[in-house]
Each structure stands twice: as structure tokens, then as C-alpha cells.
Amino acid sequence: MHIKNIVVIGSSGHGRVVADILSQMSGYRVAGFIDSFAEKGTIRFGHLSVLGGEQDLPALMAEHQITGGIVGIGDNWVRSQVAAKVQAVVPSFEFVNAIHPSAVISDTAHIGHGNVIAANAVINTNATLGHHCIINTAACIEHDNRMDDYSSVAPRVVTGGNVTIGAYTAISIGAVVKHGISIGEQSIIGAGAVVLKPVEAYSIWYGVPARKMGERKAGDKYL
Ligand SMILES: CC(C)(COP(=O)(O)OP(=O)(O)OC[C@H]1O[C@@H](n2cnc3c(N)ncnc32)[C@H](O)[C@@H]1OP(=O)(O)O)[C@@H](O)C(=O)NCCC(=O)NCCS
């Protein structure tokens, strides 16, 4: 099998989870981390260190025969900004999916690129993931769901069938979303929420049952 050399962009907690997933996949060899906020040479996972920042990518890719990688940053908005920066510095950069070997993914699911699918996640039939989404540990994305680009579901989130999750929207740890519900873009569903009604874009909902608790703008912090 041809092994591709790749990098993980972002070296904090989520970045290390992504490196861990990639280390368990066949087909990739992680050369190291790209992180503008960490000192070059800092060891972050096993023997893997920070190789440099995004601006160093052209030289690093030539030096290590790197073809692409994945952005390992948990915040949806920051992940999109960093992915755009990488694309601007290296237009040919190939974003790969990090899929843990224990994840169960239907052959009829549609998966874009740059996605993280963590240990024990389930993605059921005809679900569609855009690009750069996170399906975190033991989350369950049911049949016919749609997750738009840069959306995320935290550990143990469960959605019913035919749920849609808009771009940049984050569903927090342990939340449950009833079948058929649409959640607009740039919204946050709080930890442990039970979502029974449609959620409009740019809003914050939590509680059991979940209610609208506030509004937000693109890029507002939530982690
Ligand atoms: C929804 C969320 C973003 C709201 O954050 P926030 O606006 O900063 O809210 P605050 O912490 O100021 O809390 C405001 C009030 O709402 C309550 N509250 C906050 N989140 C809640 C939740 N998920 N469910 C029920 N009540 C909640 C707080 O207890 C507090 O109540 P109080 O005023 O009686 O003390 C946040 O609480 C949350 O759930 N984050 C998810 C984090 C997560 O999943 N991390 C894992 C990622 S892998």
C-alpha cells in the first residue's frame, strides 16, 4: 500500500486525538504537527513534534514529502479560518479524513474531506457529511442526517433520523436531537440538551427540553 505523509494542523487536545486516530489507520504516516502558537520542536504526541506554522508548509511539504493532512482544531470557526489559511498557502493541499478503525460507517453514507470520525462513532445509512466536520467519540449520526461543513457533534451526541445540522453548528457533549429536526447554521446546542423543536441559525439552545437561551455571532467562543 502507498503510505501518504501527512500533518495534523493544531496540536492541542483535539489535535492529539486526531493524531492518535491517524496513527491507528493504515495508509498514512503523520510527519508531525503544524501549529503557529506552539514552539517548533515541542513534542505533542508520542514522538511527534511541532514542525512549524502554516507559513512553513511549502518548505516542510517538500522536505518531508507531505501531500496533505487535516485540521485538528475543535472550535468550528477557528478550524475554518485555519483550513482557509492552509489552502491559501498551499492550494494543492489534500485534506484527508481521520476515521478511527472502531467507527461504524454505512457504505451508503456520503463523507466529504477533512472530517474527524472518532472511536466508536456510528454513521448510519444515507447520512451526508460535508467537509471538516467532527463526529466525536461514540456519537451516533442516524440515517439520512445531513451535517454541513465545519459542523460538529461532541462525544455521545445522538441524533434521530433525518436531522440536519447547519454549517459551523456545534452540538455539545451528550445532547440528543429528535428525528426530523433541523438545526440552522452557526448555532450551539448545550451539553446534555434534548432538542425537540427546530433550532434557527445563530442561536444558543440548551436544557431538557431544550429552549432558546440566546443568540450568537459567527466566531463567538463556545468551548
Ligand atoms: C451551552 C453553553 C455553550 C452555554 O455557555 P454559557 O453561555 O457560557 O453559559 P454559562 O456557563 O454562563 O451558564 C449560564 C446558565 O445556564 C446554565 N447552563 C449552561 N449550560 C447549560 C446546559 N448545557 N444545560 C443546562 N443548563 C446550562 C448554567 O448552569 C448557568 O445557570 P445559572 O445562571 O443558574 O448558574 C455551555 O454551557 C455548554 O453546554 N458547552 C458545551 C461544552 C462541550 O460540550 N464541551 C465538550 C466538547 S468535546
TrEMBL record:
<dbReference type="InterPro" id="IPR020019">
    <property type="entry name" value="AcTrfase_PglD-like"/>
</dbReference>
<keyword id="KW-0808">Transferase</keyword>
<feature type="domain" description="PglD N-terminal">
    <location>
        <begin position="5"/>
        <end position="85"/>
    </location>
</feature>
<comment type="similarity">
    <text>Belongs to the transferase hexapeptide repeat family.</text>
</comment>
<dbReference type="InterPro" id="IPR041561">
    <property type="entry name" value="PglD_N"/>
</dbReference>
<protein>
    <submittedName>
        <fullName>Sugar O-acyltransferase, sialic acid O-acetyltransferase NeuD family</fullName>
    </submittedName>
</protein>
<feature type="active site" description="Proton acceptor">
    <location>
        <position position="143"/>
    </location>
</feature>
<dbReference type="InterPro" id="IPR011004">
    <property type="entry name" value="Trimer_LpxA-like_sf"/>
</dbReference>
<dbReference type="Pfam" id="PF17836">
    <property type="entry name" value="PglD_N"/>
</dbReference>
<feature type="binding site">
    <location>
        <position position="173"/>
    </location>
    <ligand>
        <name>acetyl-CoA</name>
    </ligand>
</feature>
<dbReference type="GO" id="GO:0016746">
    <property type="term" value="F:acyltransferase activity"/>
</dbReference>
<keyword id="KW-0012">Acyltransferase</keyword>
<feature type="site" description="Increases basicity of active site His">
    <location>
        <position position="144"/>
    </location>
</feature>
<dbReference type="InterPro" id="IPR050179">
    <property type="entry name" value="Trans_hexapeptide_repeat"/>
</dbReference>
<feature type="binding site">
    <location>
        <position position="74"/>
    </location>
    <ligand>
        <name>substrate</name>
    </ligand>
</feature>
<feature type="binding site">
    <location>
        <begin position="12"/>
        <end position="14"/>
    </location>
    <ligand>
        <name>substrate</name>
    </ligand>
</feature>
